[in-house]
UniProtKB/TrEMBL annotation:
Designated name of the protein: 3-methyl-2-oxobutanoate hydroxymethyltransferase
InterPro entries membership: Pantoate_hydroxy_MeTrfase (IPR003700), Pyrv/PenolPyrv_kinase-like_dom (IPR015813), Pyrv_kinase-like_dom_sf (IPR040442)
Organism: Nitrincola lacisaponensis
Gene: panB
Pathway(s) per entry: Cofactor biosynthesis; (R)-pantothenate biosynthesis; (R)-pantoate from 3-methyl-2-oxobutanoate: step 1/2
Cofactor(s) listed in the protein's UniProt record: Mg(2+)
CDD domains: KPHMT-like
Pfam families named in the record: Pantoate_transf
Length: 263
């Protein structure tokens, strides 16, 4: 598969074609996921939970993110690689530049940050320096203690309006992608319509430009309760590779997520 670029993703949005994203944290899975045609790999700080066994993403360090990003980059076959800046590694614009530089040099091609309007300056500085940014809105797991748990965001009209404004502001600041986690489908659809940049969703309904899932969730091997917005793609699959293929196809055909998998 040829190399995916931001241009590829933007043209897919303009054509109304969906693209798929999965997390990976190592070379072998990055190889498999990119080989089946998934456009983007997210080296998520979800690795703190699914690899390290923590009960949140807060303990993950920048060095750990760089280590996993480098491993993913070595296995990758042409997908675009996005990496998360972990908790408190982008608290100020200056710290953000340094942290992002480290992940880009480890092999990331897009940097993802969690938050709203307060990120505008950092996003603008990164964009000016050639670093594409994805702004993660809605349920932002690094803020779980402030949010009071992992809950759907933007349910009342004030917080929905705030999210719409944050999305617009961060796109204007220079964000190349948006990601919405656990927001009502109608709100995600509106933000996707308003945005010129591609919008990736998780628990955000069927109308975003792309979908992302944590690999362990969609393979059905994450311990504990299955979140409503995931689907076990190993059900009926003949191999892990087949499960990745079925996910990619379901996203591109628009059959994932369905209504029961949305809010
Ligand atoms: O860390 C992660 O895997 C993420 C996705 C859930 C969007 O940020
Ligand atoms: Na994350």
């Amino acid at each position: 598969m040829s190399n995916i670029t931001l241009h590829t993703l933007t043209s897919l949005k303009q054509k109304g074609s969906k693209f798929s994203v999965l997390t990976a944290y190592d070379a072998t899975f990055a190889h498999l996921i990119s080989s089946v045609g998934v456009e983007m790999i997210l080296v998520g700080d979800s690795l703190g939970m699914v690899l390290q066994g923590h009960d949140s993403t807060l303990p993950v360090t920048l060095d750990e993110m760089a280590y996993h990003t480098a491993a993913v980059a070595r296995g990758n076959q042409g997908a675009m690689i996005m990496a998360d800046l972990p908790f408190m590694s982008y608290a100020t614009p200056e710290q953000c530049m340094q942290s992002a530089g480290k992940l880009m040099q480890a092999g990331a091609q897009v940097i993802k940050l969690e938050g709203g309007a307060w990120l505008a300056e950092s996003i603008s500085l990164l964009a000016d320096r050639g670093v594409p940014v994805c702004a993660h809105l809605g349920l932002t797991p690094q803020a779980v203690n402030r949010l009071g748990g992992y809950r759907v965001q933007g349910k009342d009209s004030a917080s929905a309006q705030q999210m719409i404004e944050d999305a617009r502001l961060l796109e204007q600041a220079g964000a190349s992608l948006l990601l919405l986690e656990c927001v009502p489908s109608l709100l995600a659809a509106e933000i996707t319509r308003n945005a010129d940049v591609p919008v990736i969703g998780i628990g955000a309904g069927p109308d975003t430009d792309a979908q992302v899932l944590v690999m362990h969730d969609m393979l059905g091997i994450t311990p504990g309760r299955k979140p409503r917005f995931t689907r076990n793609f190993m059900d009926g699959a003949s191999s892990i590779e087949d499960a990745f293929r079925r996910y990619d196809t379901a996203v591109k055909q628009g059959s994932f997520p369905n209504q029961d998998e949305s809010f």
